[in-house]
Amino acid sequence: MFACNGNVETFVLFRLSDKSEKWIEWILLIATCISAVAIIAILSLLVAFCLPLFTLGRIRGVLSSQWQPSGGYFGILPMCAGSLALSLLALSIAFPAAMGICTLLHVLARGVFNRFLLATVRFMTGIPTVVYGFVSVFLLVPPMREWLGAGTGFSLLTAAFTLSLLILPTIVLVLHARLEQIDPILRLASEALGLTPIQQMRHVLFPVASRGMVVAAVLGMGRAIGDTLISLMVAGNAPQFPVSLYHSIRTLTAHVALVVATDSRSMAYQSVFAAGLGLFLVTGLITLFIRKSGKAGREVRREKGF
Amino acid sequence: MKRVSDRIVTGAAWLSGGGLMLAAAVVIGFLILRGYKNLDLALLFGDTPWQAAIMGERPVFGGIWPAFMGTFYLVFLSSAMAIPIGIASGIYLAEYASRRLRSLLGFFVDLLAGTPSIVMGLFGFTAILFLRKTLLPEAQTCLFLAAACIALLVLPYVIRITETSIEAIPEPLRLLGYSVGFTRWRNLRSVLLPLASRGMLSGAILAVGRASEDTAVILLTGVVAHAGIPGSMFDKFEALPFRIYYLAAEYRNLGELDQGFATSLVLLCISGTLFLIAVCLQKSAEMRWKRR
Questions:
Q1: What residues contact A242, with CB distance under 8 A and at least 6 apart?
Q2: What is the mean pLDDT of residues A189-193?
């Protein structure tokens, strides 16, 4: 009997399983299918609860730009824009910082400091999100209010700073893993050419790892869009389009949390299901993209298990 | 000219590294400074004597004991669901699945890993709405529902870590069992699983850590500000992360604010410790095969 063993193609010419062991394989398979069933259940429940929007022609009401339940306006577009603005802003803070930190890790810092920096990054992935939010409410919001005159201090900018701190470790770890895989011969060659460490990083290592950089950025974006607590606690939750950095915004995730907690009108609920479905589809697309980028996806998977 | 740009990049790199360290230090230092004074029995039990509170003879008001126990039950239940299923899936994906099945099922696992926790919470919430319309008109969000949703949230971590730690075993050892005539399951049980156990344990601990810190899921699936210790799996409950969120938004006096800081510190210690243990286990498991 032939069996292909794992991912290394080794063909083993042995009797691999008894008939009596068939049931074990079945149990394991059923356990594995639970993930698939869960995904299908999530998708179908959300779609089922969104259906009334389409059959009753209310979809236009939900995809409009005003949220005012008392006045009968249930548009979630401001929240979509809020989510997008917040996660892009957080990414644009976190990504350059992650590149800087990876430069430190790979060519600049040495020895103890290097290990300490990496350990700090790893440890930061273990800090609960709600703790970031809590600290930010008391440490970042007051200065924002007083120094920048940013209204109440609960603003797009405040949330973006906090959120960038949350996604930074993810981006650094993915990028770092990709850079570590680069063939050491490339580094030797660039050193032999007389490139300074920084030039190596800029002209050799980063270009070689460009795909890993895209994956890291997309993954960070996914985490930023999916995060609820930071925007719920720090962004102020006013349902308006993000017109300035100092204004309060509401994200889709926070919208779901707020409406389920407070409202009970059917139309408000339906907007929540639409928001949930939208979030699910966007993060699904991101997962698909990361898988499609092939090999890069492998280390992502490993790094996601922080 | 090149020198100047080199210097700028170097400066920026050190700045971002320093900024990260500073931010981590500020977050942790701030919590310790504001919170350590209130780390005492009164934080946990309020005015209730602690023996009576632990035995459940008297309810606790003002302390975080109910939230602590709520989180404990939640983590216990969700781990009891996620860890066995996750390990079984990991074994299947690493050892049994054919290449095509593995890629297909692996995709679902990735999808599950990428699903935001608020969507998982919304899933639990819609499941209750669905049950109310169909089988159980009495259904409401509860501890069991929250634990099930959290279990789905942490399941991918357990699966992936189990899978990678089995795959990390070097090829000769993987074939060892077969060479002495073991069947596939016997080989798994006697050779592969013991070798991969350290990595699998780290996955389980990581899952516990993530289950204890997630807030968005329980926000939609039955956490409340005042519930006491849940009497059954179908009660509402309190939880530490929700307590922190609640206190940040609605503290009424300085005492409650101080409690918020102390609670954050407690949660940070719990998940930080779990996280460190998991990372150390994982490191030692990796080193085992690298040193060869």
A1: A81, A82, A85, A86, A156, A249
A2: 88
